[in-house]
Amino acid sequence: MGVNMAKITISGHPGSGTSSLVRKLMEHYNWNSVNGGQIFRDEAKARNLSLQDFGKLCKDDEMIDRQLDEKLKQIISDDQIEIVESRLSGWWAFQLEVNCVRLWLDVSDEERANRVVNREGISFEQALSENTERAQIDSQRYMRMYGIVPEQKQPYTHVLDATHIGIDEVFELTLEILEG
Fold first, then answer.
1. Could you report the per-residue pLDDT of 67-98, keeping only the tens digit for each?
2. What is 42-75 written as a DSSP string?
3. What kind of architecture, by CATH, is found in domain 8-179?
């Protein structure tokens, strides 16, 4: 299909549209993907913990996070996976010097909360509060463990402001990046 790069990392805060973009890319290119958030959710479920409680556990026990991150780094280094979605996947690809598109989807806090409301049927206030708390806990953990701020632009080859555009436009812009 004229794609120059066989791999892309897609990163963004919860509610930024990363999962929707991954689904469209998988369908369009018949690519496979790994979702770092799903790895995290699966581990939380295996421990019978909510995402928030598991996030707090990871804050207290860095080895859990480090093990999950090592798994993700191995996947990023593997040529068998075309799409890796995770808040830190762009950072890991950057640090590992993997030659790929590293995309960050930038979306305002309010718009991300609106998207979570539509997806999960909770109140705007709850979505905004949970997004903010989760981002703060995760950011503190990433800074303490790795000296990383996920939204820092340095490791990304491309940053798309998706606050005021829908998934179809984000998808089209991503295709331009991949095929450009």
1. 999 989 999 998 789 999 999 999 999 999 99
2. HHHHHTT--HHHHHHHHHH-HHHHHHHHHHHHHH
3. 3-Layer(aba) Sandwich (3.40)
